[in-house]
């Protein structure tokens, strides 16, 4: 606490040289931000808080059954201001996408459409120079069928769905043909589990979600393992949990195994969107809205919050 306190004291009183959007009152230039116990005008601060509570209201969520969204006079003004800033910042990207999408469509049409998996590279290769100046990562084109590329996505793009199975506390979620596991890993499934080298990702819960008409989706769970020889993190088996409930492994045909990985990725990306919504937006937004309602516009924390966007 002693190390934190001096730095926090610096925030006790400081000035910001411009008005803050969506505040409950107009902030004059060089307005001072001050902690409640140091405020020389508590009456004005109390009036400020009353205005905030009246102007920032808890409105219905915009993204399903999620956190509240700001409404009320001040809340609506703030949302409108944030959207205007976002729209202005996104205008260059939006314009670039509109301009470049036409040329991409022409290239795909000239090639006769999508004839095989590699044809989809036409959508990205040497395209979108304005809207995505950093380009698509070269490895995505050369490595996307590799098992190591697939398994490392679990540790980068979506690391929250995969966990190590505890050697003694976790039971094996499903079985895989013993001879197949032995041929792939040189060990049995039980040996991988007992040595702490077996990992599991479970998206079987997605089987209960309604699909759009004419669409298909699996509800995969999968084993990953740390190879006893190379120590690479690799996929071992993918179970679909729908239809015939097939279990795919790297020993299946090239196309079947790639299809299984695509089904799993579809489930994993869906999980990533839900996780992102629930663990960032739903948590941060309700705290942010509560802060707008309960902190004076002169509180030092508001100087930081008013620079962020809802």
Describe the structure.
This protein has helices at 4-10, 42-55, 72-110, 138-142, 147-153, 178-185, 189-194, 254-294, 300-305, and strands spanning 13-16, 31-34, 57-59, 69-71, 162-164, 198-202, 221-226, 233-239, 247-248. It is an alpha+beta fold. Strands 5-6-7-8-9 form a 5-stranded antiparallel beta sheet, with helices on both faces. A hairpin with a 6-residue loop joins strand 7 and strand 8 (233-239). It starts with a helix and ends in a 5-residue tail after the last helix. 20% of the residues are buried.
Set out the fold topology.
Elements: H1 4-10, E1 13-16, E2 31-34, H2 42-55, E3 57-59, E4 69-71, H3 72-110, H4 138-142, H5 147-153, E5 162-164, H6 178-185, H7 189-194, E6 198-202, E7 221-226, E8 233-239, E9 247-248, H8 254-294, H9 300-305
Antiparallel strand pairs: 1-2, 3-4, 5-6, 6-7, 7-8, 8-9
Q: Can I get a quick summary?
A:
With 310 residues, the chain is an alpha+beta fold. It has helices spanning 4-10, 42-55, 72-110, 138-142, 147-153, 178-185, 189-194, 254-294, 300-305, and strands at residues 13-16, 31-34, 57-59, 69-71, 162-164, 198-202, 221-226, 233-239, 247-248. Helix content is 43%, strand content 12%.
What are the defining features of this structure?
310 residues; alpha+beta; 5-stranded antiparallel sheet; two-stranded antiparallel ribbon; 9 helices; 12% strand; extended; disordered N terminus
